[in-house]
């Protein structure tokens, strides 16, 4: 008999900084997403995500599996862009929580929160290496765009997508 898994989706706290940074680093290494290519692991604020996402217009959620942080994702205003566009950011999940519907649940929560904050469009950048993530974004109604928006610094994120927030 297997143990019952407990999955929780909640807002990021300051106590989660180290755990979510570790998740992001582990998943990045799994997919070969290195700092020298401008991926999230190069973010100088990676170890202080609570402080980043506590700013106005920002929000981040974590997924816990049996009390341990196993993934997360958030939204923030898209820098160097029109004020009505937010960005879906830092969606990273350990293998232990993939395929359980939590990424979809988190993304839908983030999009609704963005809508409540007054954003009318949501942008994201990713890489073709993250096929599962791209499939999720397609199912959520994101469409491909050719040119990057804002100034994210993710030079090797060749997949760019946009979604209206209705």
UniProtKB/TrEMBL annotation:
Segments forming domain N-acetyltransferase: 7-166
MF (Gene Ontology): N-acetyltransferase activity
InterPro entries named among the record's database cross-references: Acyl_CoA_acyltransferase, GNAT_dom, NAT_camello-type
Keywords: Transferase
Signal peptide boundaries: none
Coiled coil: none
PROSITE patterns: GNAT
PANTHER family: GNAT FAMILY N-ACETYLTRANSFERASE, LD18367P
Protein name in the entry: GNAT family N-acetyltransferase
Species, as recorded: Intestinirhabdus alba
Source organism phylogeny: Bacteria, Pseudomonadati, Pseudomonadota, Gammaproteobacteria, Enterobacterales
């Amino acid at each position: 008999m297997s143990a019952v898994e407990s999955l929780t989706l909640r807002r990021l706290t300051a106590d989660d900084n180290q755990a979510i940074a570790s998740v992001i680093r582990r998943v990045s290494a799994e997919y070969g997403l290195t700092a020298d290519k401008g991926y999230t692991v190069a973010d100088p604020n990676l170890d202080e995500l609570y402080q980043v996402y506590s700013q106005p217009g920002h929000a981040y959620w974590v997924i816990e599996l049996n009390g341990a942080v196993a993934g997360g994702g958030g939204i923030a205003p898209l820098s160097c862009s029109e004020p009505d566009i937010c960005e879906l950011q830092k969606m990273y999940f350990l293998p232990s929580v993939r395929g359980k519907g939590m990424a979809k649940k988190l993304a839908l929560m983030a999009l609704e929160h963005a809508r409540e904050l007054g954003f009318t469009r949501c942008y994201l950048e990713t890489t073709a290496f993250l096929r599962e993530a791209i499939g999720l974004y397609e199912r959520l109604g994101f469409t491909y765009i050719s040119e990057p928006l804002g100034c994210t610094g993710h030079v090797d994120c060749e997949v760019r997508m946009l979604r209206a927030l209705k």
